Amino acid sequence: MKPAYPRKLTLAIAALLGAAAAFFAVPALVQSRPDAVPRAVTPRGPLAADELAHIDVFKRTSPSVVHITSLGVQRDLFSLNVQQVPRGTGTGFVWDDSGHIVTNFHVIQGANGARVTLADQSSYDATLVGAFPDRDLAVLRIEAPKAKLPPIALGSSRDLQVGQRVYAIGNPFGLDQTLTTGLVSALNREIESFNNRTIRGVIQTDAAINPGNSGGPLLDSVGRLIGVNTQIASPSGASAGIGFAIPADEVNRIVPRLIRDGRFVRPAIGISAGPAGLHRALNLPKGVAIVQVGAGTPASRAGLQPFRRGNRGEVLPGDVITAINGEAVNDLDDMLALLERRQPGESVTLSVWRDGRTRQQQLLLAASE
Questions:
Q1: In Å, how far are 6, 51, 126, 153, 254 from 104, measured between CA atoms?
Q2: Active-site residue, 67 included
């Protein structure tokens, strides 16, 4: 016995089936009409001046920007053969036509190798020339024809102003050669490097910087390098309009020394610094309290004295370095940053406080071990 359906439901189903039949019959109707003609395109006229500027900067600079793939070692489960596999990606840029590539240290940190892909998609194995984790910088080198290695134009970060237009070129999320624009949002920011050293003088920008942009160039409005993109501030891990770049003047100071020496040789004076609690406990001025002086070091030859215990357990007065060449030293990080600007063998004048009196002490810097 067939089920009985309400008349209204039967009519509704019939109407739906009729509509469907009409819909699927449309292609047959279209086929019988004259050929469809695309709409006319409205001319847009010339590009705006700022658009032309963006295009020009990208065309001139992108050949100097590279994609970096860091490599790790993996052992095959069945054959036990060892092979290199990708472990991360980042960005870099051509420093000179000898094949030196600048990027962030954290892009290649812990890697066993790296490959550099140029703008023309040719790829080369890279060797590590040198790295300076304190400033999150590293230099790689590839063997490529000079014609494929246009060095990036170098600018200065010394005269930057908040509000200047900037460009960032990189490979966010592995997407090749991406351009973003923004402004210099702030100057002289401080961020922590990956070994907990403070990086000072950092440029803040609202140009979109995402994972994969690390190590890429931050450019001014004429396409000169003014910084190396290094970090973002974002709870989600994606761009939140707060990106940071290592200033170009720092890069230009460090990279040549990495190329020359294979590492950044920081000048040293041969002391060990006391903890911040020592300053509070002894009511010492801001600076670097000396707790150890190495034998035969510049500090030893200059007669600097450490804080130490006397025969009865009392603390004997020692020296506190409060300035170098007239620039204030508030803590150990300040002192290291000031020393990094100089070369071993240079002479500096220390302002040294001891037991309420300050004297000027000259010494020659040595190379750190």
A1: 74, 30, 14, 18, 12
A2: no
